[in-house]
Amino acid sequence: MHAEEPWKEFDEEDIKSGARKFGEELRRKLSPELADEVMTQIEEIQNAWHNIIFLFIDNERAITGIHVPDEALGEEEGPVLMRGAHPNHIIAAFSQSEIRKKIKGCDGIEIITGLDDDRNDSSSDLWVHELELMSEAVMMKLKENPPEQWEDLLKS
Questions:
Q1: Domain limits at 140?
Q2: Greater confidence, 122 or 119?
């Protein structure tokens, strides 16, 4: 038994089988194209080096939040939205300095409130809350300026 490292209890075939089952479940609930895009993004997260912060689905699209160097966004902190490689994929870019501030803020709140003991997952809870806020900001931007209008803007 590996109490500190529970993932060592699973063999590689269990993980592959779980991924296959997850993919099958996605295909039952989503369009095949959207399910494939979600699985592609999940595979990307498995790489040792990636810039993905989060991934969610809005029933039409897979939305991937990424962090990029500050200079890539100019003065923007994010989210800056753009199409992914597939029509049903949207990328929401956030500046690395903004992500660092959010992480530091979560750590700071944990220390200030004394919630930083090993017995609770307060930093994880705080980070999940930050991810939810970032996802909401993306959804608001998508409502203000849906991708269907982006092509019209390029034609002007």
A1: 48-145
A2: 122
14-33: pLDDT as tens digits: 556 777 788 888 888 888 88
Residue 23 placed within a domain: no
Question: What is the SS3 string spanning the chain?
Answer: CCCCCHHHHCCHHHHHHHHHHHHHHHHHHCCHHHHHHHHHHHHHHCCCCCCEEEEEECCCCEEEEEEECHHHHCCCCCCEEEECCCCCEEEEEEEHHHHHHHHHHHHHHHHHHCCCCCCCCHHHHHHHHHHHHHHHHHHHHHHHCCHHHHHHHHHC
Q: What is the pTM of this model?
A: 0.72
Nearest residue to 53 via CA among 7, 15, 91: 91
State how many domains the chain has. 1
Indicate if the pLDDT at residue 131 is higher than 80: yes
